[in-house]
Structures are given as structure tokens and as C-alpha cells.
Design goal:
Blueprint: H1 2-7, H2 14-25, H3 33-42, H4 49-62, E1 65-68, E2 76-79, E3 86-90, E4 96-99, H5 102-114, E5 125-128, H6 131-145
Parallel strand pairs: 3-5
Antiparallel strand pairs: 1-2, 3-4
Length: 146
């Protein structure tokens, strides 16, 4: 972790190393500052919420993480070393799914080329209802019709 921080031009601190280690080991990759804070404290790390905010801002500025603001009011963070991907977001439960589609990537590249641009990055977020929530919504709607 120290090498990653050093290569990113960041000051090497014990808290920064612990936070980066947490981000690389946790299964969930779309975390709010509060999720990170609670997760670290659950592991016995005594790190303040303000410190997590500060370190994550430094990580984002250094390009280690990407902050994304979806429909919620909280920014979620994911490591920036993930392959370029897009998101499906459930409007009911907030479920967030990463996906990669080579055809979408191809179409975006062709569109950019057609207009004389090269893509540095893009953001494609699709909003709808996951199957479980859609089933619940349909069931609720059917009950109201009776």
C-alpha cells in the first residue's frame, strides 16, 4: 500500500494505508464515506469520519478512486483501476450493478471517431427496476386493481 500511495504522490500515513487496504479487500465496490468509516471501525480501526473524508478527497485527486453521484445524494467511490464499465441502478432499492458491454464500447468509439474526438472517459448509467423490485411493484399494482 505504501508503494501505491508513494507512486500516486500522496503522503504515506498509517491511516491512508489502512483505508486503501480496506478498499482493495472489500467486496462492495460502491461505497459512501459513511460505509468506509463504519467498515474500518468494524475492523477495529480508530479513524474519524472527517479523516476518511480528507483521505478519500486526496485519493480522488490523485486518481486512486473515482467518486460518482447517482440518484442518491451521497457520492459513492470505487477504485479507479477497474476496467471501464457502465452501471445499472435500481430506482427502488438502489442496487448498483457494474457491467461491461463490448458493443456499447464499440459504438461509443465509432461515435467519437465520427465526430473527430477520442474518448478519455464516459459515464453511462441506466435507471430502472431490478427484477425483484419490479415483481414487488407488479404485485402491489395487481392488488390495488382488485
Amino acid at each position: 500500500m505504501q508503494a501505491v500511495l508513494k507512486d500516486s504522490g500522496l503522503k504515506i500515513t498509517a491511516q491512508g494505508c489502512k483505508l486503501l487496504e480496506f478498499l482493495t479487500q472489500v467486496d462492495e465496490q460502491h461505497l459512501t464515506i459513511e460505509n468506509i468509516y463504519l467498515g474500518l471501525n468494524a475492523q477495529g480501526e480508530t479513524i474519524g469520519l472527517h479523516t476518511v473524508h480528507r483521505i478519500m478527497a486526496n485519493f480522488e485527486q490523485a486518481g486512486l478512486v473515482v467518486g460518482r453521484l447517482f440518484e442518491s445524494k451521497n457520492t459513492v467511490y470505487e477504485l479507479s483501476n477497474k476496467p471501464r464499465h457502465d452501471h445499472l441502478i435500481c430506482l427502488t432499492c438502489g442496487k448498483l450493478i457494474d457491467f461491461i458491454d463490448p458493443l456499447i464500447e464499440l459504438r461509443l468509439g465509432l461515435a467519437a471517431e465520427h465526430h473527430g474526438m477520442s474518448i478519455h472517459h464516459h459515464s453511462l448509467n441506466m435507471y430502472g427496476h431490478c427484477f425483484a423490485c419490479q415483481k414487488a411493484l407488479n404485485s402491489k399494482s395487481d392488488k390495488q386493481k382488485v
